[in-house]
């Protein structure tokens, strides 16, 4: 008899390396496998499940809207899109938005907006606009986006890539200033690098980038697909540095943990570059996604989850630091967005994840021989303590 894992491996492309668990149910910050075994979800679907699995308000919005009207395309106006974008803009300080589905699509939208803005507003000669991104970035998996990547694993074997992209080290504002030319349209940055291993830049970095972008008339685009919506203890991670970007991408948690919902949000001058027919998506901004996205934003704010992320994040960081393990070389993060790096000579992050799973704690390794702890923001302090205790036991096993 073929097992569930064998069947998936037989029919699904092998573009992931899943841990050997078969999940069947979730509630809040907990998951259960097909045999009924309980796990603490310390990954939250790469930060997409911030409100927890099966949040009652999200399920209600989802089912009510699905039974009323789910998708009709943007060939028509619908009741849900305006209120959703209005709320998203009010919360982020942006003037307008363009709805998409996945994070990568929101980033692609940002790249197109930046180029068109450069030609139509800044006066860059046609075909010459350049966009600067950071080394070790992660913005998604499309050809243009991986063309901006410095990570061989993402890029190799998929070229050629579009031209017009430059790269600077993350966290180095002077390097950004040196890289800017008159043709530079935008600087695209993750306020905290997520997939690179949860890398926090030096304080003041984004504020310095903001000044440099203003001086050179370059758009500052914050990719907050992962860091946004309370993940780092603020609505947007940019707020840690007290800045407002010219444009923001949101995704992941915007879908309430049930749907892909993303947004490109921007200042008036930028959002207004789009004209009928020059960009779009069949599903982007559909009534179901808009209803769920609106509810996700409302839940986040009304249930105090942003503050909760900040408080629990402090608690998590201090209990991790209290582990005092020589196997841990670095602990990085803000809010419930934490990377724990291990001494590669002594243990791999992959092994730590395997052993944590055996103790009922699920997460995934990431770059820099690190694991992430980014649970749903609704997690209880007790479950966080349980996860840290499991990590303590794993470290004593491999020490
Ligand atoms: N931007 C960032 C910062 C991300 O972390 C991710 C996903 N990890 C993406 C974009 C891409 O999002 P998606 O997988 O929904 O396309």
Briefly note the structural class of the backbone: alpha/beta
CATH-level-2 architecture of the largest domain = 3-Layer(aba) Sandwich
- Bound ions, cofactors and other small molecules, one mention each: 4'-deoxy-4'-aminopyridoxal-5'-phosphate
Regarding quaternary structure, what we see is single chain
CATH topology of the largest domain: Aspartate Aminotransferase, domain 2
The averaged pLDDT comes out at 97
What is the 3D shape? Answer: globular
Largest sheet: 7 strands, mixed
Protein name: ornithine aminotransferase
Cofactor: pyridoxal 5'-phosphate
Keywords: Aminotransferase, Pyridoxal phosphate, Transferase
EC number: 2.6.1.13
Short description:
The chain is an alpha/beta fold and 399 residues long.
Describe it:
- This protein is α/β, with parallel strands linked by helices and about 400 residues long.
- It has two domains: about 140 residues, Alpha-Beta Complex (Aspartate Aminotransferase, domain 1); about 250 residues, Aspartate Aminotransferase, domain 2, CATH 3.40.640.10.
- About 40% of the residues lie in helices and about 15% in strands.
- The protein is built from 14 helices and 15 strands.
- The strands form three sheets. The chain has a seven-stranded mixed sheet, with helices on both faces.
- Helix 3 packs antiparallel against helix 11 and helix 12 runs parallel beside helix 14.
- The radius of gyration is 21 Å and the shape is globular.
- The two termini are about 40 Å apart.
- The mean pLDDT is about 95.
- The structure holds 4'-deoxy-4'-aminopyridoxal-5'-phosphate.
- The site of 4'-deoxy-4'-aminopyridoxal-5'-phosphate (PMP) has 15 residues, from helix 5.
């Amino acid at each position: 008899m073929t097992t569930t894992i064998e069947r998936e491996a037989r029919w699904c492309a092998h573009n992931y390396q899943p841990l050997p668990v078969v999940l069947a149910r979730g509630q809040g910050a907990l998951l259960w496998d097909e045999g009924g075994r309980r796990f603490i979800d310390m990954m939250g679907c790469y930060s997409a499940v911030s409100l927890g699995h099966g949040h009652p308000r999200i399920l209600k919005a989802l089912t009510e809207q699905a039974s009323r009207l789910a998708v009709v395309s943007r060939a028509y106006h619908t009741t849900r899109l305006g209120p959703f974008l209005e709320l998203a803009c009010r919360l982020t300080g942006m003037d307008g938005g363009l709805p998409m589905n996945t994070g990568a699509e929101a980033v692609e939208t940002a790249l197109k907006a930046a180029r068109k803005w450069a030609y139509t507003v800044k006066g860059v000669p046609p075909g010459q606009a350049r966009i600067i991104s950071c080394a070790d970035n992660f913005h998604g998996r499309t050809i243009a986006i991986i063309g901006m990547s410095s990570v061989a694993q993402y890029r190799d074997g998929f070229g050629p890539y579009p031209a017009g992209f430059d790269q600077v080290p993350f966290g180095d504002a002077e390097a950004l200033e040196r890289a800017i030319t008159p043709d530079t349209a935008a600087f695209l940055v993750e306020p905290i690098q997520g997939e690179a291993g949860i890398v926090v830049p030096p304080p003041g970095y984004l504020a310095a980038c903001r000044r440099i972008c203003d001086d050179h008339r370059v758009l500052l685009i914050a990719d907050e697909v992962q860091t946004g919506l309370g993940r780092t203890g603020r609505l947007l991670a940019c707020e840690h540095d007290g800045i407002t970007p010219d444009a923001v991408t949101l995704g992941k948690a915007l879908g309430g943990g049930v749907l892909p919902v993303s947004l490109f949000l921007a200042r008036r001058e930028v959002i207004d570059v789009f004209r009928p027919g020059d960009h779009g998506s069949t599903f982007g901004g559909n009534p179901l996604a808009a209803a769920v996205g609106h509810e996700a934003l409302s839940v986040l704010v009304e249930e105090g989850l942003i503050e909760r992320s900040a408080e629990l994040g402090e608690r998590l960081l201090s209990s991790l630091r209290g582990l005092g393990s020589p196997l841990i070389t670095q602990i990085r993060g803000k809010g419930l967005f934490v990377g724990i790096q291990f001494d590669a000579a002594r243990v791999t992050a992959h092994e730590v994840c395997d052993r944590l799973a055996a103790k009922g704690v699920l997460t995934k390794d990431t770059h820099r021989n690190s694991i992430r702890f980014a649970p749903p923001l609704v997690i209880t302090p007790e479950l966080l303590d349980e996860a840290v205790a499991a990590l303590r036991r794993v470290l004593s096993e491999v020490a």
